[in-house]
Amino acid sequence: MGERSMDTMVRALTIRKKSWYNKNTVGLEVYAPRIDPQPGQFFQLRVSDGVDPFLNRPISVASYTGGKLLFIVKVVGRGTDLLSKKQVGEKLTMLGPFGTPITARRKKSLIIAGGIGVAPLYFLAQKLNARGASCTFLYGAKRPEDIILKGHIRRVAHRTLFVTEYGSKRRMTAVQAVHGLKMDNYEVAYTCGPRPMLIELQQLHLPIPVYAFCEDFLGCGCGLCLGCAISYKGTYKRICVDGPVFELSGIDFNA
């Protein structure tokens, strides 16, 4: 995190673009030059000007190009509902970036996204593409309408595979789809999705390193409250500071 003061990390930026991807998922874009966030980092978005809701909402970076910073918000409660109601021209107060970034290395990569976990992985895929890394993007969701960014993903990945549990020809989960892939074609994998998906993927014991973007309920976002601690390789780590990216094999989901 370095020696930056909290004041230098707080910005109130104007929403320049708002896009609904489906009935409960919205994209909010602001112009934020010279921030240079990296894959694995996130921002805390202020929900309202008051104290109700009290906590900010941690939202990962979905894209950052030409100073345009994109957040994708899935409405799952009151806080995210309030964020989704913000309009173009309104101010969006954000703190960050937080989290320890990872480096998008030029390796043959497999990306495994589940649900709204697609957001940080799309940002990673952009970085991999820019570095000339071969990338397969596997994206699973409940229903076809839950799949977002489809065209954008196809532009940055060398191969794409979209699967849903209901309502499509490929009726399967993202983890089930992994069984149909040859792991010899990949050197590293990245994943983000619901906790049950990560557990199931961990149980496959893939022969390549798998790095998980861990989504959890974050309070302070800067490591003070310890509300997001997980057991990793025999010790507790804070998702918001030490992560949010960890090697999947080292996470103890039963601790």
Automatic annotation (TrEMBL):
Origin, by domain of life?
Bacteria
Example GO BP: pyrimidine nucleotide biosynthetic process
Q: Where does [2Fe-2S] cluster bind?
A: C220, C225, C228, C240
Q: What does the note accompanying the cofactor annotation read? A: Binds 1 FAD per subunit.
| Key words of the record | 2Fe-2S, Electron transport, FAD, Flavoprotein, Iron, Iron-sulfur, Metal-binding, Transport
GO terms for MF: 2 iron, 2 sulfur cluster binding; flavin adenine dinucleotide binding; metal ion binding; oxidoreductase activity
The record's comment on protein family reads: Belongs to the PyrK family.
Which PANTHER family does its entry note? DIHYDROOROTATE DEHYDROGENASE B (NAD(+)), ELECTRON TRANSFER SUBUNIT, DIHYDROOROTATE DEHYDROGENASE B (NAD(+)), ELECTRON TRANSFER SUBUNIT-RELATED
Its recorded name reads: FAD-binding FR-type domain-containing protein
Q: Which organism is it from?
A: candidate division WOR_3 bacterium SM23_60
